[in-house]
Amino acid sequence: MRKYIIKGGNPLYGKIEVSGSKNAALAILPAVILCDQECIVEGVPKIKDVGIMIELLRLLGAKISTIAGDESRLRIDPTKINTCRLTGKRATELAGEMRASYYLLGALMGRFGEAEVPSPGGCSFCFRPMDQHVKVFRALGGTCDDITEENWQDPVIIEKVERTKEKVTIAFGTPSVGATMNAILAAVKSNGKTVIKQAAKEPHVVDLANFLAIMGANIIGAGTDTIIIHGVEYLRGATYTIIPDQIEAGTYMAAVAATSGAVTLTNVIPQHLDSIIEKFIDIGVSITEYSDSIYIERKASETFKGCKITTEAHPGFPTDMQSQFAAMLTSAVGESEIVEHVWQQRAAYVRQLKKMGANAEILDKIVIKIKPMEKGKKLQGAKLNALDLRAGAAIVIAGLIAEGTTEIGHVDIIERGYENMVAKLSKLGANIKVVECDICDDIVDIDDQ
Length: 449
Fold this sequence. Notes:
With 449 residues, the chain is of the alpha+beta class. It has two domains: 2-19 and 244-448, Alpha-beta prism (UDP-n-acetylglucosamine1-carboxyvinyl-transferase, Chain), CATH 3.65.10; 22-241, Alpha-beta prism (UDP-n-acetylglucosamine1-carboxyvinyl-transferase, Chain), CATH 3.65.10.10. 29% of the residues lie in helices and 22% in strands. It contains 13 helices and 22 strands. The strands form six sheets. It has a four-stranded mixed beta sheet, with helices on one face. α12 (389-401) links the parallel β20 and β21 (405-409). The radius of gyration is 22 Å and the shape is globular. The chain starts with a strand and ends in a 13-residue tail after the last strand. The mean pLDDT is 92.
């Protein structure tokens, strides 16, 4: 095991490059299953979840190699995949480590008409239902049992049933990113026309659709409320570059603002960050946008004010940025309020911020109140564990502004979604390092305090 050791107080200065989108990569890689030729995917982030997805694809029979030794450029040959059943102990262990393993269900159903994939895992801040995914699979002609809190650890099996309707309409009550992407994957080679209503509009949904379209899929309306798919029989090989990661960019922007620094982030699409940038401007942080980069600055002499944030589906403020903003807002002048409308019960990290001295509390599970600290007081370093991917990033930000030393255990959770975080922060001047340890037994889980 490893842990991060952070000595706070250093402002961040310089330039870093944002990696490819985690959420796009984890759908695009399974999408290659649908292709009838070899593909090249570039801009692949070197993170733990991507490594798991690559191994799962290899277990299915895909041939995957790097190009010129560059792990961000992958050559993928899916033509040797001859099974729709991902079974066995190793597959179960891997699929259980991340939520996105469920995209293999849509891709395998799209290619074979049936699928079996072990239960997905991922961040465990709450039970995350898959009822919308099951709705998709049934609408497109498959049979699939309901997935509940009682049976969620069982493999997910889609039995083959021929599609009988020329037109299928899938209407979500509220937009679901994962279910929208699974619907796209399962429908692109299905007979007839598929209409997805109340579709998710996140950039990674559009990126998946663009990748499939380059291969020959007939997809209209990605990025809007309604997506229309006309099934095709054949998808040709293609070379495609994954979009930059908007959440990684937003995380480093929050770290810069929190530490009173000035940083240029390259390889970004500013439009994907509109709701995040708007909040930075609202609290008084300087942002300059360029075509493919962003400059963010907060002078040490400048304060920033509190704000109210409500998480929503895209183009609203992303739920995956609420914890990083909360860590930053512990140093704000004025009260802040964060209302979580996407995932309840993901605010356990607030207790960690309180252990560091933050004046914060959780109300009704979905509302986080953050009040200014007493004049002259700062967060204090502490020994903590990463509770989930974004909560871990929040504690890193808190450690960067805290007095003293912060130790963070279970950092493999953070590395599921951030490529070379320690190296990137160190390049900007942060005092952060990785330490090998047999077990993080010197760090007590916050729930046991």
